[in-house]
């Protein structure tokens, strides 16, 4: 219980949690408007509008500036952290999501999907034999579902999340 009180009494934790929560709720609402059905995965999942990662790190940076000041090394650290997270969301994570879309299309359009369901084998390096063994359940569990496509964000999604996080941090009383 003391940990919960300590976290609840930390305004930066509260600001970050509220920013993330608001972004996830908005993401779920926007997804509902676009698809006309509720997808509860959007409440916790990555990707989509607005970026909850961007909301969280932007709110942390602005909250840190409000509490510690713009000259603080902690603000500088949180600002750099926010930049890295947002850059990654638009770059690496977005590219991985785009690759997952292409792979899902390929797998669903060809017989490769059935081939992937076949057990994989590998050679055991530690034993000097040519005996092959099956890798447990990895092929079957992979072949039964598509790769996750919602991973990263467009620049607009990152900007929206960032603005949301800044707004929450400015409005939250510290």
Summarize the structure in words.
It is built from 8 helices and 2 strands, in the order ααααααββαα. It has helices spanning about 1-10, 10-35, 50-70, 75-90, 90-110, 110-115, 140-145, 155-170; strands at about 120-125, 130-135. A two-stranded antiparallel sheet has the order 1-2. Helix 2 runs antiparallel to helix 3 and helix 3 (about 50-70) packs antiparallel against helix 4 (about 75-90). The longest helix is centred in the first third of the chain and has 25 residues, at about 10-35. Mean pLDDT is about 75; it is low at about 120-145.
List the helices and strands and how they pair.
Elements lengths: L1 H7 L2 H25 L16 H17 L4 H18 L1 H18 L2 H5 L4 E3 L8 E3 L3 H6 L11 H17 L3
Antiparallel strand pairs: 1-2
Helix pairs in contact: 2-3, 2-8, 3-4, 3-8, 4-5
Key terms:
65% helix, mainly alpha, 3% strand, two-stranded antiparallel sheet, 8 helices, 174 residues
Largest sheet: 2 strands, antiparallel
The amount of beta strand, in percent, is: under 5%
Number of E strands:
2
Mean pLDDT: 77
The spatial strand order of the largest sheet comes to: 1-2
Task: Put the structure in a nutshell.
The protein is built from eight helices and two strands. It is mainly alpha-helical.
